[in-house]
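Problem: given the chain below (179 residues), write out its structure.
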Amino acid sequence: MKHDTIVNQPVIETERFVLRPLRRSDVGLIEMYAGNETVAKMTATVPHPLPPGSTEAYIQRVSAEGTSEHVWAIDGIAGGDPEIMGLIALADVDPGLVEIGYWVAPAFWNWGIASEVVSTIVENNPLNNKTMFASVFQDNPASARVLTNCGFQYIGDAESFSVARDASVATWTYSKKLD
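Solution.
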């Protein structure tokens, strides 16, 4: 019998959802939502189509001791919604600096989930960082609005490689001081 790894990561509860570490039982819903071509193409790292076993490997990697990527499931059970509505992650860049990344399943777009989740992570600052930054593809203005609505400031244009698109894509970069 395999057991889920206990991840030393805070659980953050709101009235609408719980942000919690990933667990093996999340594989099916993550694959269904992240496997959506539109979702994958708005991320830098999610391939499309998802290779067999990639979600299990991802959960194992981000659950490992000493990981530099801290991932929370957006669990809507508390509000009567599905157990997985999307994911949000903080990736260590330098001491005190993390990159925030997130995706929300298409079934929950225009519900305000992304703004509420990003705002919750910023307010709770679970890793006690001084600065968060994020990059969004320029053909995803909704994600840029989420960041600006949460107090992130535009700092410039750049490019990121999208695995799902197999191409470099123009991005807007944002940052937020947490002092």
